[in-house]
């Protein structure tokens, strides 16, 4: 591997040190959606001035090399890589060394019951990822705590009626946005804010749990293709589930933080319009051994420093290296 960024493509996915594998000894992976991704579209590389409207994307998933798991290891030079990315990455690692962002304390790796069986832990990981869509880590963690207090398994969720489940996870979801949209349209009347969205979240959880019970014996599938086929599970969730629940690096998990920061630092060859576009662009050049690390690193950086609105560039070690900082 040379300094210019020649990368080794590992053809079989494997566990990485930073991820907790929940694979149970002797348990067989029972492998299984519809695409859901929050898009933060924009036209330029400048800092995002406001949160963009979430939109549903149709995801045509192609199995990564890690999932194919065949062929010898080979060296492959990326045709393009960003200028100064290693320096920028090192600076972000330095800024994130305190590991005290919400994602470090309340992310998916911290929401499951460590004393539960591996199968149940994997289900809890997936559920926390489903709840986390468009939701702050603190809110997701609170909902998971309430669910776990009742014994969180596929069976317990299926036995819980929809209104009780909705009350347990509330206010997880898109309720603020929906509430605003509904009220701006003069729709909604006297119901809870975002009631429609909460109902969707409950519906997805119930439908996915039903599928997991019927097809996977209460476990979660062990491939991205099957995970994204589950109702309410998007590519980001799938890749995180593969990493946290199965200890397998299947791809880069890109949420709005990773999407935004990658564009600000010009880690994509051209500006990308959606997290899925950013994932593909990053996977073209970022060495595979960094795929697992990059999500948590950038999410926490986005939560603490490179904020969606008014990023703290004065305190950022990348200020002199960041194209977006120059316009601030
Ligand atoms: S200087 Fe730092 S905080 Fe500001 S936009 Fe660039 S990476 Fe984000």
Automatic annotation (TrEMBL):
Chemical reaction(s) catalysed? 2'-deoxyribonucleotide-(2'-deoxyribose 5'-phosphate)-2'-deoxyribonucleotide-DNA = a 3'-end 2'-deoxyribonucleotide-(2,3-dehydro-2,3-deoxyribose 5'-phosphate)-DNA + a 5'-end 5'-phospho-2'-deoxyribonucleoside-DNA + H(+)
Query: Positions of the region Disordered?
Result: 1-78
Its main localization is nucleus
As recorded in UniProt, its EC number(s) are 3.2.2.-, 4.2.99.18
Name a GO molecular-function annotation: oxidized pyrimidine nucleobase lesion DNA N-glycosylase activity
Q: Which Pfam families match?
A: HHH, HhH-GPD
Q: Which CDD domains match?
A: ENDO3c
Co-factor(s): [4Fe-4S] cluster
- General function of this protein: Bifunctional DNA N-glycosylase with associated apurinic/apyrimidinic (AP) lyase function that catalyzes the first step in base excision repair (BER), the primary repair pathway for the repair of oxidative DNA damage. The DNA N-glycosylase activity releases the damaged DNA base from DNA by cleaving the N-glycosidic bond, leaving an AP site. The AP lyase activity cleaves the phosphodiester bond 3' to the AP site by a beta-elimination. Primarily recognizes and repairs oxidative base damage of pyrimidines.
What subunit structure does UniProt give?
Interacts with YBX1.
Protein family (similarity comment): Belongs to the Nth/MutY family.
Q: What is this protein called?
A: Endonuclease III-like protein 1
Q: Which organism is it from?
A: Cervus elaphus hippelaphus (European red deer)
């Amino acid at each position: 591997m040379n300094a210019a960024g020649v990368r080794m493509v590992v053809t079989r996915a494997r566990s990485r040190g930073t991820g907790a594998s929940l694979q149970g000894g002797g348990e067989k992976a029972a492998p299984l959606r519809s695409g859901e991704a929050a898009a933060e579209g924009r036209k330029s590389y400048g800092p995002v001035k406001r949160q963009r409207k979430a939109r549903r994307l149709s995801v045509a998933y192609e199995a990564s090399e890690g999932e194919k798991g065949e062929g010898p290891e080979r060296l492959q030079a990326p045709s393009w890589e960003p200028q100064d990315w290693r320096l920028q990455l090192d600076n972000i690692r330095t800024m994130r060394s305190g590991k005290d962002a919400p994602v470090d304390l309340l992310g998916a790796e911290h929401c499951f019951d460590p004393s539960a069986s591996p199968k149940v832990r994997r289900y809890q990981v997936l559920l926390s990822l489903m709840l986390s869509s468009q939701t702050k880590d603190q809110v997701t963690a609170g909902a998971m705590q309430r669910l776990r207090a009742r014994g969180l398994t596929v069976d317990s969720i299926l036995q819980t009626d929809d209104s009780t489940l909705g009350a347990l996870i509330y206010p997880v979801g898109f309720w603020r946005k929906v509430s605003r949209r509904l009220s701006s349209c003069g729709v909604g009347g006297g119901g809870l804010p975002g009631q429609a969205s909460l109902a969707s979240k409950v519906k997805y959880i119930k439908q996915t749990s039903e599928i997991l019970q019927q097809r996977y014996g209460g476990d979660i599938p062990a491939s991205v293709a099957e995970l994204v086929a589950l109702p309410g599970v998007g590519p980001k969730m799938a890749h995180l589930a593969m990493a946290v629940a199965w200890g397998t690096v299947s791809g880069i998990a890109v949420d709005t933080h990773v999407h935004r920061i990658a564009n600000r630092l010009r880690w994509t060859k051209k500006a990308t319009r959606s997290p899925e576009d950013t994932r593909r662009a990053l996977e073209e050049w970022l060495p595979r051994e960094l795929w697992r690390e990059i999500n948590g690193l950038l999410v926490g950086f986005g939560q603490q420093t490179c904020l969606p609105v008014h990023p703290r560039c004065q305190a950022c070690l990348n200020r002199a290296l960041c194209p977006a900082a120059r316009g601030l």
